[in-house]
Design brief:
By secondary structure, the protein is of the alpha/beta class. 39% of the residues lie in helices and 18% in strands. β1 (97-101), α6 and β2 form a beta-alpha-beta unit. The structure holds S-adenosylmethionine (SAM).
Length: 283
């Protein structure tokens, strides 16, 4: 009975609020709905569904809770040391470097990339183009603004300290506001893109696709990774989240470059057998 009420609620979110709940795994959706139920003191799914149907503000709050927009500057710093090495490799062989941060949430990941290349004497930052995409328009609006504030739970300064002189790239206000400098924004653009339903792009040297697979139902990981593989140049690099894996049926598309940091490289030919893209298998 209560499972049916949750199903009805999710069908309402999909059909009426246009959020594709069927792409996400059930336990994730249940956790997000339950957290809104606690906030609204609803005892049952049915009671919460009634509230949701009649309250546009709660609809916005639930959509926001479901779109998993947790992010940070230089999230998992050890991975960023790996990304720096990848970018130095690419810089050594290319005149132009194209990077895609997908999904980019509110922009902290693509701006971290912009700061990283500006901070690296081995990379010519003027040759680097960074695209940030996400499915969420509100997240992209924040990203374009590039202004972030400290909160009780997020220590922005600590995140930025991955770079010794981060204040060359970000203006820090007295009120703990962090404003990305125009110069740091110059090579970063944002656009809306749905990794499951929209077309592939092309010619990227590096795609950073972190912390979305963990929420996505298995059947949608494959189309996402196919989109990514098609968007990379042969030998282009892919970085996924530290808790994520590439499904076995896509092993042959990517070779493992660093199993722990989840860094892969697109195979020049689809059936090349060098390195299997299951990081756990190579431990
Ligand atoms: C947890 S954030 C990850 C942000 C960043 N990559 C990081 O690791 O910090 C996940 C983002 O995925 C976005 N998202 C959810 N479904 C998506 C889809 N089908 N296509 C593109 N982005 C999606 C959400 O809006 C959210 O901003």
């Amino acid at each position: 009975m209560s499972e049916d009420a949750l199903k009805d609620l999710l069908a309402f979110v999909e059909d009426e609020l246009a959020f594709a709940t069927s792409h996400y795994n059930d336990s994730y959706l249940d956790r997000r709905v339950s957290s809104r139920m606690r906030r609204t003191r609803s005892e049952t799914y049915g009671e919460y569904f009634e509230l949701l149907r009649g309250d546009p503000d709660e609809q916005t709050a639930l959509l926001e809770a479901m779109s998993i927009n947790v992010t940070g500057f230089f999230r998992n710093p050890d991975v960023w040391a790996g990304i720096r090495t990848v970018l130095r490799n690419v810089a050594g062989s290319n005149d132009e470097i194209r990077i895609w941060s997908a999904p980019c949430a509110d922009g902290r990941e693509p701006y971290s990339l912009s700061m990283l290349v500006r901070d690296d004497p081995e990379i010519d930052a003027s040759s680097v183009r960074i695209l940030g995409t996400d499915i969420s328009e509100p997240a992209l609006e924040t990203a374009r603004r590039g202004v972030y504030t400290e909160s009780r739970t997020v220590d922005v300064r600590e995140q930025l300290e991955f770079l010794d002189e981060y204040d060359r790239y970000v203006d820090v206000g007295d009120d703990s506001t962090y404003r990305i400098r125009e110069e740091t924004k110059r090579n970063v653009t944002f656009e809306r893109h749905d990794l499951i339903n929209d077309d592939a792009k092309s010619g990227f040297d590096l795609i950073v696709c972190r912390n979305l697979f963990i929420y996505i139902d298995n059947e949608y990981k494959q189309p996402m990774l196919e989109t990514i593989a098609r968007s990379l140049r042969p030998n282009g690099y892919l970085v996924i989240g530290k808790a994520e894996t590439i499904p076995p049926n896509l092993n042959s598309a990517f070779a493992v470059r660093d199993a722990r940091l989840r860094i892969y490289q697109r195979e020049p030919t689809p059936d090349s057998s060098a390195g299997r893209a299951d990081p756990d298998a190579s431990r």
